[in-house]
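Hello,

I think I submitted the adenosine-5'-diphosphate job twice by accident. Can you confirm which output corresponds to this input? Input:
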Amino acid sequence: MNIFRDRETGWIEVICGPMYSGKTEELIRRLRRAQIARQKVAIFKPKIDTRYSDDHIVSHSEQQLPSVSVETVDEIRRHSAEAEVIGIDEAQFFGMELIQLCQNLADKGKRVIVAGLDLDYRGEPFEPIPQLLAVGEYITKTLAICMVCGNPASRTQRLTKDAARVVVGGQDIYEARCRKCFVPPV
Ligand code: ADP
Ligand code: ZN
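Support: Only one job matched these inputs. Its output is below.
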């Protein structure tokens, strides 16, 4: 991490991993520190994700930070003009347009911190996270604990037979699994 912040230069940070790996916790930690430093912080999450709160990003460990729920990438753009630091949670739900937005914001000198699932329920790369990993400057991959064997978990097991890529849910529908214990859907 660049602690010697050059105010002219922006960059992209990506926090990725499976569900329950601490992506939101880590995002909240970084954004809180920016707020303590009195930087202007804007925090977004997709409207689709209303599991725990409409106006906060909330971690599975019940930490939270006020956020703006948005439907489109354009809404993030409009609400980011004044911000120095921009946090985006559940970034996998924003689609490919998010890549150009993050690039534009970083080019304008902003610090952009994006958290999202790198793999979908089949264990396949979940765009736009792979692309953001390529264009971003700082990458953090978080791991959870495998609910079958206790090893570090990199995958999210869907426990239902639903075949839609986007099914919003919690511990009733998803659990963290390691490579060995993950069973891709047939
Ligand atoms: P993510 O944003 O990656 O889904 P969160 O930051 O919301 O992760 O939640 C991380 C927290 O989830 C952990 O600190 C822990 O309290 C809890 N948790 C629940 N299940 C697991 C698991 N299988 N492995 C690790 N942490 C878990
Ligand atoms: Zn396992």
